[in-house]
């Protein structure tokens, strides 16, 4: 970093304007990609999924809470784990403040994990999370949407639209649903892996600073991540 090029204000402004043209082109491409994402065909949700929530048992349609659009974050927390995935907690730390804004645009957002509701509630209280976090328990939801995998599936299941290449029982993901006026629910979109980057505000800020994410040389990209109350310990 100390050997970084240092220039005059005039040269800096010229370089910044040059990069701005690329940023504008990227923004236009991102807008077009978002339009294509919204134009994807839908598939009806034929199975009846039921979740354990703080308000009792609720179906997928009921998780919509009267709104037509539902975003589900598949938060990695298997039933036998002591706590959720640390990287997923990093993502979840971005959720609290945005929920009211999403609600105003006819969107409900929830997190779903397979761990029992009591475990979820304990961690929600620990971190001060106010977003809705429900348990899929032993139901098929997380398995059907390729965020969880039964032992017999091993590495042969599909994850991120390709053959899974690890033995992990749970992965992170986001699935989106639409509920029409008749109560029919449709699956409209799912993403995994690097597709989740756009939902992590902190990563976008890190992408602006000189060192970036500063993850080169780590055993894996998020090896530095901890539960936020354990940094410095």
What's the helix and strand layout?
Layout: H1 9-38, E1 43-44, E2 50-53, E3 56-59, H2 60-63, E4 69-74, H3 86-92, H4 99-103, E5 107-113, H5 117-127, E6 132-135, H6 141-144, E7 158-159, E8 162-163, E9 173-179, E10 185-192, H7 201-206
Parallel strand pairs: 4-5, 5-6
Antiparallel strand pairs: 1-10, 2-3, 4-9, 7-8, 9-10
Provide a brief overview of the structure.
29% of the residues lie in helices and 20% in strands.
Describe what you observe in this structure.
This protein is α+β, with helices and mostly antiparallel strands. The protein has two domains: 9-38; 44-201, Glutaredoxin (3-Layer(aba) Sandwich), CATH 3.40.30.10. It contains seven helices and ten strands. It has helices at 9-38, 60-63, 86-92, 99-103, 117-127, 141-144, 201-206, and strands at 43-44, 50-53, 56-59, 69-74, 107-113, 132-135, 158-159, 162-163, 173-179, 185-192. Strands 1-10-9-4-5-6 form a six-stranded mixed sheet. The longest helix is centred in the first third of the chain and has 30 residues, at 9-38. It is globular, with a radius of gyration of 20 Å. The chain starts with 8 loop residues before the first helix and ends in a 27-residue tail after the last helix. The relative contact order is 0.15.
């Amino acid at each position: 970093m100390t050997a970084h090029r240092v220039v005059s204000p005039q040269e800096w402004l010229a370089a910044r304007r040059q990069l701005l043209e690329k940023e504008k082109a990227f923004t236009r491409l991102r807008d077009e990609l978002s339009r294509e994402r919204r134009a994807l065909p839908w598939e009806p949700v034929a199975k009846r999924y039921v979740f354990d929530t703080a308000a009792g048992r609720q179906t997928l349609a009921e998780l919509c809470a009267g709104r037509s659009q539902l975003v589900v974050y598949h938060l990695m927390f298997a039933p036998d784990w002591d706590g959720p995935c640390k990287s997923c907690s990093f993502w979840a730390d971005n959720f609290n403040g945005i929920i009211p804004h999403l609600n105003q645009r006819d969107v409900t957002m929830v997190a779903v994990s397979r761990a029992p509701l009591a475990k979820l509630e304990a961690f929600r209280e620990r971190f001060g999370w106010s977003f809705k976090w429900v348990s899929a328990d032993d139901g098929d939801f997380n398995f059907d949407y390729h965020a969880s995998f039964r032992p017999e599936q091993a590495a042969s299941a599909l994850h991120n639209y390709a053959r899974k290449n690890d033995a992990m029982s749970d992965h992170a993901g986001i699935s989106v649903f639409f509920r029409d006026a008749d109560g029919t629910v449709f699956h409209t979109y799912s993403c995994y892996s690097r597709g989740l980057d756009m939902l992590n505000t902190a990563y976008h800020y890190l992408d602006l600073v000189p060192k970036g994410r500063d993850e080169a040389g780590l055993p894996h990209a998020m090896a530095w991540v901890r539960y936020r109350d354990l940094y410095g310990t």
